[in-house]
Amino acid sequence: MTNVRALVLERQHELKLRDIDLPQTVGPGEVRIKIHTVGICGSDVHYYTHGRIGPFVVEAPMVLGHEAAGTVVETGEGVDHLKVGDRVCMEPGIPDPNSRASRLGLYNIDPAVRFWATPPIHGVLTPYVVHPANYTFKLPDNVSFAEGAMAEPFAVGLQAAAKAKIAPGDTAVVIGAGPIGTMVAIAALAGGCARAIVADLAQPKLDIAGGYQGVIPVNIRDKSLAAEVKRLTDGWGADVVFECSGSSKAWETLLDLPRPGGAAVVVGLPVAPVALDIATASTKEVRIETVFRYAHQYERAIALMGSGRVDLKPLISATFPFEDSITAFDRAVEARPADVKLQIRLPD
Ligand SMILES: [Zn+2]
User: Fold this and answer.
1) 115 CA distance to ligand 1 centroid (A)?
2) How far apart are CA 155 and CA 159, in angstroms?
3) What is the pLDDT of residue 2?
4) Is residue 271 very low, low, confident or very high in pLDDT (cuts 50, 70, 90)?
5) Cis before 119 (ω within 30)
6) Would you say the pTM of this structure is higher than 0.90?
7) What's the CA gap between 167 and 152, in Å, rounded?
8) Helix, strand, coil shares of the chain as percentages rounded to 5?
9) pLDDT at 1
10) d(CA 30, CA 217)
11) How many A from CA of 156 to the centre of ligand 1?
12) Among candidate residues 327, 67, 85, the one with its CA nearest the CA of residue 179
């Protein structure tokens, strides 16, 4: 353990930039990374404001941050696909490689997964971190650190798009134009959808999502989403519907949106159980899919950014220096409607 500076969530509502003991020794199969950029995630903010997410409760001081990119500064024994100086981004969840879920390729749902900034595991808002090389991915020269740190939320979008089993030319509906909803829409379009109808109540969010080719923004303050989907699909319905708002209200009409034989992919998490209209789902044979983080999506996220087919830079709303991390978090708590992703840059 070494005393290093970090952004520490002491307890609910209390953040401090201070020294804390974190492991810095590089073991076999690990790399040490100098952190460059860390994105602020809704989950980081939620631990700050609520002190818990579902069963995960902040019971001891915890370093925040899990959306990170940086440079390899040391490699452990047996690491051959990365070298010192490589620019990388890191997958924040470390599963047990021998678990049954991991052996099935479903390592994201390994019950033993250790995920950065999910209590009691420390995050990476600190200058250096040690991480398994297998969950560390090299960035192409044309992908910046800021974009590299966007691979994490974009991987969620790609996992949702993969679960949807999109076919070329599909019409998607995305409910919720927050950071995840917008990334899901971009992923669905990259995955072959001809268009993504994106619904929200906040016009500034819709304006940002609407900047992407193929996105049709619908402000559900003035329009019925079901009527718009009907109109745009000649009454047939959408091939795939992504619920990304987490609002229980969305579930009241969600199953009216997919076409017969279509899919509903659940990304947003309502805080309380919601009623599900099984009769409507069954009559249309709607396929319902769930998403928990992602597995095997980082290479895809990086490949799409590197190819120039996906540009996530317009979603980065502001960048704060590490010393202003608390200001950055308080800005995230404000939840300004035009803020998509706030990032923190560590000192060079
Ligand atoms: Zn995140």
Assistant:
1) 11
2) 6
3) 87
4) confident
5) no
6) yes
7) 24
8) 30, 30, 40
9) 79
10) 44
11) 8
12) 67
